[in-house]
Specification:
The chain is built from 13 helices and no strands. The chain is mostly helical. It has a single domain, classed as MetI-like fold, CATH 1.10.3720. The longest helix has 41 residues, at 2-42. The radius of gyration is 25 Å and the shape is globular.
Length: 298
Amino acid sequence: MAVGRAGKRKWSAGCTAVLTLMPTVVICLIAYYGSIGWTIGMSFTTSGILPKYEFAGFDQYIRLWSEPRWHTAFANMFIFGALYVGGCLVFGVALAIAVDQGVRGRNFLQSLFLYPIALSFIVTGLAWQWFLNPTVGLQAFVRSLGFEGFVFDWLSSPEKAIFTLVIAGVWQSSGLVMAIVYAGLGSIDSEIWRAGRVDGIPKVRMYRRVILPMLTPVLLVCVVLLAMNVVKSYDLVVAMTGGGPGFSTDLPAKFVVDNLFQRANIGLASAGATVMLLAVLVILLLSACIQRIRKARP
């Protein structure tokens, strides 16, 4: 009898939990996944300033890939992504190791590189736009010291402006990598370090050959998070360069938003957003494959 009452209470608690979560699940399905489905559907229509449910096949995708601006934005995504992810990993891992080794100024380093995480990319972009502006920023300051020949005009150079985004992005996100990797370093068994000291292995080699390979899942998480930032980068571009000079620093997210709100082309914007979604799915698929291959190794 007592068992039956306990089972009823358990069933009742389960039903209560399901009913409590149901509104959130329904809203998520409709607002999030429903929006994704609607966007994908719009990419196959002739929608312009208003939605039109006239099937157009792959016309919007053909038009998308014939746009020079989209080619620039898509290429910039790989340039920015490679340098941003690589830079964040290098600086983040180096900082994590420095903090793990208890270098002087450890607390200062932690504060200096963890503080930017609390800032939005809008704030970061505006700050770096001012700092790198040739007329009021770094170049003007150095020239005021008497170095009249000093030139640092990357922000106004179509060939170099994309690298200013990388500088700002790495400054913003290196602290995140540092925090994640530092937490991973804290989980390393002290016996491994003791064995390394007994064998006389230098610390640099221990990190390179033993510790960092053990942190591969942690580093993979960092890569996935950073890659997501690359795909959805919009606010940093808008705040720092506005996509310019010209369209030299355009990224897919800005291309999509501009076509949706400024050019009033829902179909083309939806096609671009769908391509971005596919890029995210590819990243997640590669991450899952790498994890599976790693687990399958003896």
